[in-house]
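A further point concerns the way the authors explain their paired sequence and structure data. The central task, working out the structure tokens from the amino acid sequence alone, is never made concrete. I therefore recommend that a typical entry be quoted early in the introduction. An entry of this sort, consisting of the sequence and the corresponding backbone structure tokens, reads as follows:
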Amino acid sequence: MKPIVSKDSTVFFGQECYTTLNNYLEKANHSKICILVDSNTHEYCLSLFMSKIEKEYDIEVIEIESGEIHKTIETCSGIWNALSELGMDRKSLMINLGGGVITDIGGFIACTYKRGITYINIPTSLLAMVDASVGGKTGVDLGNLKNMVGVISESEMVLIDTEYLTTLPVNQMCSGFAEMLKHGLIQDRQYWEKISDLSQLDFEDLDQMIYDSVVIKNKIVFEDPTEQNIRKYLNFGHTLGHAIESFYLTHPEKTTLLHGEAIAIGMIMEAYLSTQVLSLSSDDLEYISQVILATFPKIDIDPNTYQGIMDLLIHDKKNEKGNIYFVLLSAIGEAKYNCTASDELILKSFEYYASL
């Protein structure tokens, strides 16, 4: 597959990943290399990655616990200290081998350690391949508020090898699929229709599906790298989805939702808002809801928690001057950013989801 070039990085696919990486490592002559993993990718992915490195280098491995709950400044502090103790200098390289948490936190750490060292992302989850590793967004959560601290700075390169996906449980694969559905909804109805029926797809289709999804995201990011306008399209489903994810992340009586599971709910609810605020048809709303619920079983959200979730909306990064902004759809494949909705409509979107 042809590499996808962004403003400051390039995404490579398949076995070309390792040819490119080995050539790069030989020429770059980094003083040290650190590989950041979590407990899962240490066990299931690290040995595969190391088998692809052709020469001997001074490599250290830092492991953190897996899960969104560990994407914090406190975790960063521990890693910064470890990098310092390992003697990592500004000529060092950081390789982030993992899912979205690892690429988010690893990129942020690399961008801030000694005011910036080079880093490479090697996503091992479907979510990270199609979303988290592309576009240069890095960061950590602030309490239960998603990605509130971070920077936008692209990695040296991104290496996408779907062999890592064979280690993933089904729910993690589905979590990434939510972002792929989102890419179709905001930009490309034909792509949406192609991937909306998983029964007609097999693993051999996955490489092309991932490639097409990255093309959609990269096109948007290339035109608007710092999210001044059209990059906001990528937030469809995320205003309500992030609030739901954040609420479930820290509520002691709730089961934590994966990112894609929360975004799936958010996409249905924001599709409902799209019928009320823009011109999305009721037929398309039903179509979107059916496709998403075929992959993501409905979550029972207690009506008594609606207001608590809505209270989190004010902290969304897209908000300006106290206004809560949504990305909504005028049709499948056509999005509009900076849309607003009344509290009454937002409550009705919860009720719509509950009615399905």
Q: What stands out?
A: The chain has two domains: 4-168, 174-355. Residues 174-355 form a domain with the Dehydroquinate synthase-like, alpha domain fold (CATH 1.20.1090.10). Residues 203-223 form the longest helix (21 residues).
